Structure prediction request, 460 residues.
Amino acid sequence: MAGGGAPEAGSPEAGAPGRETPGADALGQERLGQVPPGSELPLAGIKVMDLSRALAGPYAASLLGDMGAEVTKVESIKGGDSSRSWAPFDGEHSLYFDSVNRGKSSVAVDFYSAAGKKLLWELALASDVLIENFRPGVLASTGLDPELLRAAKPGLIIASVTGFGATGPLSQAAGLDQVAQGMSGLMSVTGLDAEHMYRVGVPIVDLVTGIYTAFGIAASLVGRKAGGAGSAVSASLLETGLSLSAFQGQQFLSTGEVPVPRGNNHPVLSPYGVFQTGDIPLIMAVGSEKQWVQLCELLGSPELAEHPDYATSRLRTAHSEELRLLIDGLLAGQTAAQWLARLKAAGIPAGPIYNYAQAFADPQVKHLAMVQTVHRSDGTVLPLLRGPVSINGRAPQVAKAPPALGQDTLGILEGLGLSAAQIAGLVEAGVVYDAGNPAGREGTVAPRGTASLGGSEHHG
Prediction:
């Protein structure tokens, strides 16, 4: 729940004093049509038990929440989600955790006590979907054997995220985003050249694995409507990384040629990439012969369109480096802002290279109202990105700030039908943690850097 006097979650009110909340302009939200509380969304009424940690699984759950699902984050009483202890921090709050746990409730349970396992079982049976990213076999050790769960509730959908797949020689290995980026070949095509390979600047494999997992769950929910039975959804970081190879992987499979990094230039299209103007670089993308002719005219060199080295897409790609230098020279006479205006007017895809401060300040980003202001349970302000998918012209709103560990324990247990006396007994015995009960706090919150469940998660 928000702190006393705090605005409703998702309101466009100003953020922390002295700091503008980018993108939270009321006009933009009105234009886009924010979903009002209580509006019916595609997954309204679906209950999700989020047992996952770190990024891929939690991101999947947050996407389901964007579509109306009721997401309960079930965490270990000993520190909760390991990412709660990961930088960057805003005071005591992990912004890593906050970035992928919007719209959820949190209940904290002792996973290894008999009473705790009983609660986990009851929470699972009260759900439509269970998401977990433990190593294969760990879920059963918490008392949630998938086969027993399916026998007790045939309609339950169980989604599992692993590092390298549920079977095979690496099935028990811990999975991390950058390991998957490296092993899948993704890093081998990212960077300046073959001697300077880089990871993608965000945990892209984790994030896309979360998207794939949410897609599998949504598809299974549709299938359940038809057949009544739940499905076992599985995704892995390695499979995701390989799936992202697109034409780069296909090039090797079909020709045997191993792709290498091309820096900021597109590997198979030219001119397409980063170009230097009279002041700062910009991004320009020519994807058709028509655009190539238009660009040549725009640059004041229409004869380039018929030059024997650049007359076709294949020729331009073969001579991409010399073409890039030539275009840089032609762009040097004007600023990036001047060229961008002309390129956009001509319908040639082009844009600036922003840092995040510039990105969030862009008028189009503000118009889309992707940043919403919410208040955590302690009253602190959190500008937070909403979900990226709109339904019927309406963008999702952040229904709730990322929860404190055990923030909703009492309400969730009440929802299971437990009496006040039963809940108080569980809190006193240390089986559950209630964030609002000071007496139950000691020894439950792990220090920064501590992970629960013996590092059994797959995360990045």
